[in-house]
Amino acid sequence: MFRHNTLRYAVLIFLAGAALFQALTAGYFGLEILTEILVLAILVLALDIVAGFGGMVSLCHGALAGVGAYAYALLSAKAGIAPPVAMAGAVAVTGAAGWIIGAVCSRSHGIYFIMATLAFGQMAYSYVFEAPVFGGDDGLGGIERLDLSLIGLDLNDSRTFALFCLALLGAVYGAAVLILRSGLGRSLSGVMHNEQRMRALGLTVWRVKADVFGLSGMIAGLAGVLAAQHVMFISPGLLGWTVSGEALVVVILGGLGTLVGPLVGAAAFVVLKHELSAVTTYWHLVVGVILIAVVISRANGIFGWVEARWGARIERRVADATRKQQPGEVARDA
Amino acid sequence: MLETRNLDKSFGAVHVTRNVSLKLERGERRVILGPNGAGKTTLFNQLVGELTPDSGSVHLAGEDVTALPVAKRARRGLSRSYQKNTLFDGLTVEENLGLAAAVHTGHATQLWSDSLAKSEVREIVAEVAEQVNLMPFLHAKVSEISYGVRRQLEVGVALATRPLVLLMDEPTSGVGPEMSKGFHDLLNNLPRDLTMLIIEHDMDLAFDVADTITVLNYGEVVFDGLPEEARGSTLLKEIYLGSWENA
User: Which terminus, N or C, of chain B has the lesser number of Cβ atoms within 10 Å?
Assistant: First the structure.
């Protein structure tokens, strides 16, 4: 079950501080990288909820983000609906899509669950690629960002947009914590630990999975909407399975089932990508080697490794303190 | 309270339950005896819905529940513990009990509140922990408690759903004689209106706890009666090769 500890709070504060500092001081290129990290962080939080806390390893979260992006583009650019309403509508559509996928896939496990979600993702990709309304391979352009001029914010400014994404990431993180600490989240944890027993206790397991997948879909949809607003253009590539695979890599790289880890993973992945791609076009190879090292080390990602060492250190301290205390107690007794 | 009518189940050529008819009154404590392979656990699996019978029916509190899935039967008051511990290993004893209590109280699917923090849930957890002697272990993880305590928790999790009928599949399986005696007291101290159906190999427990005894052999009910009648049954002595003569 999800719990915060001192280390998690410390890393969260550090990440928030670093992001805020970057948002306030960076130039255009730095802000673009930051926004990319923030959007990816929202997507991987969505994935961590289902994969890390529900054992539902999904290969369709990229597609869900794509559904959100296309829904927003169609509602705002083509149907002429006001961007805030279109944004809410896109998140709702993605939530509904996620719920249906979760419900259909709820009876499968492990590799079968992964394959079923992959199939859903590829179906969405193919449909968007082929259907003329989505602009085919050319994608859709002219996507507007939210108009927050009423409260004095211009989201067309990169800095303001990065701060806006940071605020949304904070809200999404808070929502994820609330979900995992709710009755639904507790039951999800029970299902991951022992699905058969939860069913025997009277829980409608498929419904819990579908509900959580729907909520996760909403968050993925939000990431897609922000991605669309960020680059103001979308193409079917956003729905491709490689996006989902990349999100999974980020979650594993950061620390599955920790919520904080995927944030670390998102930052590490995007920074690595940009730094390495400046040096070599084969940057994927380096990321692959790092991922293999993380998996082989059996540490739960970068954050999981740090957390395990931190936990071991605390245990050693407690053991030392107990050992030091015992002779004194004996002396008092004597 | 719980009734089966001509329950029949085969796996290919193997007939595992043959026209099993049982009727448990409210508050009755019945022990099912039988050698290995007699069909006891298969019968349990059909009662809770984990297996579908080929023919026959299961009735709970007068309602035919044969077509209902596992979760719906559980919500109607049919709860079970397993022969092999089926717990939430990474969680604490308190969380194990809390998850079960949350399902019973309807807080398990709520999005706006923490089910384990609900007073209703906490009350059930405290009450069940007291009933099955788990109070000292509430904050320990399942992986940190002994096998015997896990067996208690196995029963506790089933009890935390506040069942009408509690099915226990060999609750003392694998525990030592001393702990087994503790289990007798534990079961005898459970509320008298709770209907219990227990699969057990421990004859001492069977005769200590049971109001009635049913014996299965090759999937068939070969004895159904009072414990004192069971003690004198020649047929049962043949089945068990006199294993309880000294009980």
Answer: C
